[in-house]
Amino acid sequence: NIEYDKSGGLEICLGEEDYNNRVNFINETRKASRTGTYDCDMLQVNELQKMLPKIKLGKEVCGGSYCPHDGYVNPLNLVKALHKGFQLNGGIFKYGQFVDKIEFSSQIFSIYTEDFYFNSEKLVIASGLITKKLSEMVGLNVPVGPERGQILITERTKRILPLPAGRIRQNFDGSFLIGGSNEDVGYNLDTTVEVMQQMADRAIKIFPILKDLRLIRSWAALRVLSPDLHPVYIESEKCPGAFAVTSHSGVSLASLHSSYLGEWILQGHHKDKLEVFHPSRFDVP
């Protein structure tokens, strides 16, 4: 059970500026879509409160947005399921193997680690923040960099939040997950009291009842971001059959990755649909 619930999702706004920024984001997203549509509506405070009968909104909440296509999935359970599915389909994991070298000869890739080497006709580099370094071995330039985000977890309580609300959601076990910062600190993985305080303060302004819950855990992790925050998909011209794939929003883009992206890598289909994500866009002055 991956604890998947597609009941929609909210983005809750504090103050007029926050609300206007959300309106502008939705309008820009509609303009960028091929159909000119984006199924996401702005709501007034009373409309939001009707959707959240068991948890009271704070006085500073001025509205928000609702998208029926959003939802929640337990990330730990999802990773376990993906690993199991990969293995059931013949995939083999080699844990703890750092790639030292990639060679390409006679249409065959040779990938060397400290303990093993592998041969393949196709190669997909999807290695997080190491993607840039490994991609250079097959003639690609994939600019990615780190952004730190911090997370807070509360103690468990009864289920009162039926929808994920942006950076606040209630897990199936009753604990609340509160996020998330956007920090340019290189590869530093420390948690900081200042940022945790800011996240907690905002969460309490949205849902005052959260002030009564104890925090039991916090951590920091690094996002993998391109310069414009959008995905990068590219095949090497120097070493055909080598692909680099990087995207922070892997879960949000799962439908694309399981269809167009897979068919492009395996069969060469849909290349035109993915061209907008080519890293050459970063070379435009």
Automatic annotation (TrEMBL):
Residues 2-258 form the FAD dependent oxidoreductase domain. SUPFAM superfamilies: FAD-linked reductases, C-terminal domain (SSF54373), FAD/NAD(P)-binding domain (SSF51905). One of its GO terms (cellular component) is cytoplasm. This is FAD dependent oxidoreductase domain-containing protein. It comes from marine metagenome.
